[in-house]
Write the structure tokens for this entry.
Amino acid sequence: MTNTKQVCIIGVGLIGGSIALSIKETFPEYEIVGIDTDLSIIHEAISMGVVDWGTIDLNQGVEKADIIFVATPVKATEYIIKQLCQAQLKPDCIVTDVGSTKENIYESARCFQEKSISFIGGHPMAGSEKSGVKASNRRLFENAYYILTPSDWTPQHAVDVLKNVLESTKAEIIVMSSKVHDEVVGAISHLPHIVASALVNFVREKKDNPYYTALAAGGFRDITRIASASVEMWRDIVISNRESMLEILTEWERHIADIKQAIDVNDIVQIEQFFDTAKNFRDDLPIRQQSLIHQAYQLNVDVPDHPGVIGNIASVLGRNGVNIRNIYITHNRERGEGAMRLTFVSRDVQQRAYEVLTTAGYGVQIED
Ligand SMILES: NC(=O)C1=CN([C@@H]2O[C@H](COP(=O)(O)OP(=O)(O)OC[C@H]3O[C@@H](n4cnc5c(N)ncnc54)[C@H](O)[C@@H]3O)[C@@H](O)[C@H]2O)C=CC1
Ligand SMILES: O=C(O)C(=O)Cc1ccc(O)cc1
């Protein structure tokens, strides 16, 4: 990796910013250029050290780039790729993207073929419900899969150059076709987003009865976290992955219809089989070590229902030099005790917090 010197990020948000930070850490000599439609985002990215400089002028930003990452919502990515086909790029420039769908982007990138510009589709399989450059993190992709879908006119050495740069993300790089990508990711990522949002909308319709909102604050909140993600991003994803999503949703309807039918006719065997099949498969899913930013060292603390308890827990930890990374109320009971989930940066801090809180008389459980 000797001749890649300038990396251009179009769309300096959560994913573009995180890739820029990973690359900068491993290759500090590289110049990182940011392009966005919003100048204040460029200024923010420069002040955070995410990019060296930036512009809102696409042509100016890409003219000296060795690698271009398009990191915008997928409909904008299609449009930008078409603009890049008309732009003046270096002859050996590699263009890649980070979009959650791949077939649509591959189609719009065909125009690179006649210009002999290498195009390699990409999709880091990690992220969050947050967006924007402020949320970017150099460790976001650690231990995650990073899927590449190279176009058939792209030479292998260009794929190797990109892989080399992406090693800075510490993700595991895998190659597949864009068609397979859209089918698989449609099922394991896009469908869950639709289901999470449908669940939230379902409960929202019942919000006139305050019990729904109150009781939805616990486990329901956890399983619907992803429904808080960017609306623009998910609108574009389901529009772009239309074919796969229609097939997947038809299959999904069959699963719902089957369990509905079993409940209707009181088919205990089928109901049991439904849960048993899911449990066995879920329990056997491989566990991938998460990146440090996703790793949570947690304690559940029983919170007696009297005033000042939450403040007291925070201050007893603070007095003992224990930093809390996150506080989350896990049960919102009407009466009696609630529970609080505390997150810490490391196993050591978690252990220290456990000692401090049990000594102070709180009921504490370690979450593994
Ligand atoms: N958020 C996530 O967890 C993941 C997202 N992705 C994909 O990454 C892409 C980016 O997502 P995020 O970083 O989350 O979004 P984001 O909203 O954090 O960042 C997108 C950035 O693109 C800029 N932008 C929008 N249109 C533009 C245009 N025409 N020209 C230049 N800049 C433009 C926005 O101003 C913003 O700064 C999407 O295609 C998404 O499907 C992939 C993996 C995970
Ligand atoms: O927040 C989460 O858990 C996500 O699912 C993030 C995510 C969003 C979109 C992707 O294409 C890949 C990962």
